[in-house]
């Protein structure tokens, strides 16, 4: 016979736990709106007054929030503070001795990654992007170490001396290349000039579309400081109707001379055409056939100022 205190197992199996009625109120929250007090298991919290409300009274206007707009003001102030802190410029090295001299560039130069380039005209150092004269506005810069009060005057004197040196040297070289004959032998002298002109025509290069009767054959040279060509001279022919400016463009391209005439305003970087025989700079608008004859010599010079006649003393 079984013991009296043995409990018989329940015939009804349960798969859930019963919750006391008092525990229901601990889930969710009652709406804090007076006369509502609805129990909401997922209540809404007002960020302005920190109260909890049901779906119908979740907005500030619905529950007459005493701190209406407080949450929006806090959010706006936080955004402005974040924007002002992010817009603070990062500190840059403005006076680094190895910095590119271009005012708009902060690149550090002469480093293992960036090589610096020295400009001999303005005596400054630049990065590879601003190494060219037109890229760092070299024509409008006063060279470091120069005397500003005398810079323009010194440049004018140097340009005049440069022109005179070219004229004297070229006239001397042309005279030395001609055979010495007695002045009475006019026929012999004319024959020598005719032969020299024929030799020039045989070696001259130019646009083959120019008719033979409209060609002017010239010796063209460039000063050493204007070109990168190994042989900055040559014999060329041009159309007599071409302007001096067009001849300059074609000659500069042929002799590998950097031509920035259409990008600069000052005369320091501008190319000019100097005619040795006439001893003057030619105007860009003059026709080459009117100011030059076949066999003449023209020279491309930079930074010699506007065209001034009779700079070379006879």
Outline:
With 314 residues, this protein is α+β, with helices and mostly antiparallel strands. It is built from 5 helices and 11 strands.
How is the topology of this model organized?
Layout: E1 29-30, E2 39-40, E3 44-45, E4 52-53, H1 70-86, E5 117-119, E6 124-126, H2 148-177, H3 186-203, E7 215-222, E8 233-239, H4 244-254, E9 271-275, E10 280-282, H5 288-291, E11 296-302
Parallel strand pairs: 7-11
Antiparallel strand pairs: 1-2, 3-4, 5-6, 7-8, 9-10, 9-11
CATH topology description of the largest domain:
Ubiquitin-like (UB roll)
- Secondary-structure-based class equals alpha+beta
Give the integer mean of the pLDDT values: 75
CATH C-level class of the largest domain is Alpha Beta
Q: In the residues, how many domains can be counted?
A: 3
Give start-end ranges of low-pLDDT stretches.
148-153, 308-314
Helix content: 25-40%
* Strand arrangement in the largest pleated sheet: 8-7-11-9-10
So what's the overall shape? Answer: rod-shaped
Order of helices and strands: EEEEHEEHHEEHEEHE
Calculate the terminal CA-CA distance, rounded to whole Å: 155 Å
């Amino acid at each position: 016979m079984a013991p009296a205190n043995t409990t018989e197992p329940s015939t009804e199996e349960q798969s859930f736990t019963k919750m006391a009625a008092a525990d229901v109120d601990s889930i969710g929250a009652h709406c804090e709106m007076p006369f509502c007090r609805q129990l909401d298991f997922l209540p809404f919290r007002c960020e302005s007054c920190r109260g909890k409300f049901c779906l119908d009274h979740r907005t500030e206007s619905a529950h007459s929030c005493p701190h209406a707009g407080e949450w929006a003001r806090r959010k706006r102030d936080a955004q402005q503070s974040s924007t002002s802190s992010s817009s603070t410029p990062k500190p840059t090295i403005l006076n680094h001795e190895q910095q590119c001299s271009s005012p708009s560039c902060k690149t550090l130069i002469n480093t293992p990654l960036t090589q610096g380039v020295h400009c001999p005209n303005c005596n400054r150092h630049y990065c590879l992007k601003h190494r060219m004269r037109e890229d760092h506005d070299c024509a409008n810069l006063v060279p470091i170490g120069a005397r500003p009060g005398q810079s323009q005057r010194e440049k004018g004197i140097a340009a005049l001396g440069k022109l005179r040196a070219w004229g004297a040297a070229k006239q001397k070289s042309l005279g030395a290349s001609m055979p010495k004959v007695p002045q009475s032998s006019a026929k012999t002298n004319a024959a020598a000039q005719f032969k020299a002109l024929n030799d020039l025509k045989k070696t001259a290069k130019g646009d083959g579309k120019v008719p033979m009767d409209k060609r002017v054959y010239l010796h063209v040279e460039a000063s050493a400081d204007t070109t990168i060509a190994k042989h900055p001279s040559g014999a060329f022919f041009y159309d007599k109707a071409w302007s001096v400016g067009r001849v300059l463009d074609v000659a500069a391209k042929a002799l590998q001379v950097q031509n920035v005439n259409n990008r600069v305003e000052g005369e320091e970087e501008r190319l000019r055409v100097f005619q040795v025989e006439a001893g003057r700079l030619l105007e860009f608008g003059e026709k080459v056939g009117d100011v030059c004859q076949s066999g003449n010599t023209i020279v491309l010079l930079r930074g010699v100022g506007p065209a001034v006649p009779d700079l070379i003393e006879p």
